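Tip: read the tokens left to right.
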């Protein structure tokens, strides 16, 4: 069974960074891209970009090119997203997702709250 298990909720002050993890279970980690998507309160889904765990190739959405870094650790089958210089408006639920041969799979989401 394919599962994406995400790390727990985070609370941060503005200006610092946060790193969210996404552990892939039930499939060969390097077979599929990992996408990162976020949803701010009352807003729609916003695609942040993706990483190819096979070669760590990345693609970033334009809005996130300056402050977001994706990484993938094939020794632990875990993908990461790090967001720096956090702003209040970065408060959102962050999701990892993958599209496999059998369908789309999503993590449960990680709430990141940015508050002073």
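Filled-in amino acids:
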């Amino acid at each position: 069974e394919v599962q994406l298990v995400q790390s727990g909720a985070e609370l941060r002050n503005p200006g610092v960074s946060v790193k969210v993890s996404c552990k892939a279970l039930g499939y060969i980690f390097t077979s599929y891209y990992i996408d990162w998507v976020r949803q701010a309160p009352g807003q729609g889904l916003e695609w942040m970009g993706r990483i190819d765990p096979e070669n760590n190739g990345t693609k970033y959405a334009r809005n996130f090119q300056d402050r977001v870094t994706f990484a993938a650790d094939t020794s632990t089958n875990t993908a990461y997203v790090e967001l720096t210089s956090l702003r209040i408006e970065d408060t959102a639920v962050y999701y990892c997702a993958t599209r496999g041969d059998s369908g789309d799979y999503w993590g449960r989401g990680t709430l990141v709250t940015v508050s002073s």
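The chain has a mean pLDDT of 97. The CA atoms of residues 18 and 83 lie 6 Å apart.
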